[in-house]
Amino acid sequence: MSDSLPRTQAVAITAKALKPALMAGGLVAIAAALPLLSHGGAQTELTGMVAQGGLKGQTLFMLLSTFLVAIGLPRQVPAFAAGYAFGPACGTVVALVAQVLACGLDFVWARAVGQNFVRRRLGARFAKMDATLSRHTFVTALTLRLMPVGNNLLLNLAAGLSSVRLMPFLVASAIGFVPQTVVFALLGRGSQTSHVHMLLLAGGMFLASTALGVFLFFRARRAAV
Fold first, then answer.
1. Which residue, of 35, 52, 65, 222, has the greatest Cβ tally within 10 A?
2. Alpha-carbon gap, residue 119 to 222, rounded angstroms
3. Cα separation values, 112 from 15, 136, 160, Å
4. pLDDT interval class at 35 (50, 70, 90)
5. Residues 6 or more apart whose Cβ sits within 8 Å of residue 43
């Protein structure tokens, strides 16, 4: 029974990991189809609209992405769009900053508005969740961010409602955001026909980051037993 449980969990995690993989495939398909519209005019126009204005355009993109991710947009979408418009290096930086800012906004909002209310209403149930998140905050947050499953917004809010300290959570989140941000920025650039090799690099990095997240998850479970 004890051996079958980890295998069941591994299967469940693998199944959930298909969600970001399917999202990546859909985004690549959409971007790859753009040159077919108006003989490439749509692709050129979209890239120009997002990238125009130099630093100003990147800043506006980052602020908009911060807002959208903070209210629940999957963080992979801005990473893909930023990679498509700005290139993998600049796109990764722009998207990563937006993700971390959104994470901080959700955290601060939840702590300021809802922490006391949730503590009073949930009592012991909240205390259990609080203890889980507060114990080894950095490793726990890093593991959850590396996993290709879960909900970014809900984790941000849960951390804000708990007694987790902001800086360890933000630093761990920023580090954990890096692999998928790089992957989707590479996918964004790789969706253009002249950069197909980046699709292969992105796929390899996605598998590697997923494997690391799963390893840390099961290692943490064994240590908790």
1. 65
2. 29
3. 36, 23, 8
4. low
5. 31, 34, 35, 37, 192
Tell me 162's DSSP state.
T
Rounded to the nearest 5 percent, the helix, strand and coil shares of the chain are 85, 0, 15
H or E element: which one contains 106?
helix 88-113
Q: Which long-range contacts (CB under 8 A, 24 or more apart) does 166-172 make?
A: 166/104, 166/107, 166/108, 168/137, 168/138, 168/141, 169/103, 169/107, 169/137, 169/138, 169/141, 170/100, 170/103, 170/104, 170/107, 171/138, 172/137, 172/138, 172/139, 172/140, 172/141, 172/142, 172/145
Average pLDDT of the chain to the nearest whole number: 74
Q: pTM of the prediction?
A: 0.71
Number of domains in the chain: 1
